[in-house]
TrEMBL record:
This is Putative phosphohistidine phosphatase, SixA. Pfam families: His_Phos_1. It comes from Cyclobacterium marinum (strain ATCC 25205 / DSM 745 / LMG 13164 / NCIMB 1802) (Flectobacillus marinus). Gene3D superfamilies: Phosphoglycerate mutase-like.
């Protein structure tokens, strides 16, 4: 059976500043609205999510909450290794999902998610804007068998 990854960049946030810790930055109204629309599209498509993993940053937690409000998410976890991760760290997170979880979602940050999508699919033109999601299919039995260029880009949603 194929595995499916929904890779999501958090929604539009308040601007970074010296007065606020990066982990504490929140989504702003346009980002919330965009993610609510994305969640409705996923719901209407009957999207399945066995396990949702997200960065500990407020903006990723809020993104995950909005998406899971419209989806039935079987498991959810905060994964420290997603915060400020490159494609190597994100691959380790992906490789460690339980094999019974065939549809997983990861919510993270740029530039990591853009580089990770390119690494997995060979589609190096992808540049994630806030709130963007890609669906990638892998024709493997186990998550640990996923590596460079092993995924097929199925869909881009924004």
């Amino acid at each position: 059976m194929a595995k499916e990854l929904l890779l999501v960049r958090h929604g539009i946030t308040e601007a970074p500043g010296f007065d606020k810790n990066d982990l504490k930055r929140d989504l702003i109204k346009p980002g919330i609205d965009q993610l609510e629309r994305l969640a409705k599209v996923l719901n209407s498509n009957g999207q399945i999510c066995d396990h949702m993993a997200h960065s500990p940053a407020n903006r990723c937690r809020q993104t995950a909450q909005i998406l899971s409000s419209q989806l039935e998410v079987r498991k959810s976890s905060v994964v420290m290794d997603i915060y400020q991760a490159g494609h190597g760290e994100l691959l380790q997170v992906l490789n460690n999902f339980e094999n019974e979880d065939t549809h997983v979602m990861m919510v993270g940050h740029n530039p990591g998610v853009s580089h990770f999508a390119a690494f997995l699919t060979g589609e190096d033109h992808l540049l994630f804007s806030p709130g963007m999601m890609v669906r990638i299919a892998f024709y493997v039995e186990e998550w640990e068998h996923i590596s460079k260029n092993s995924g097929v880009l199925i869909e881009i949603l924004q």
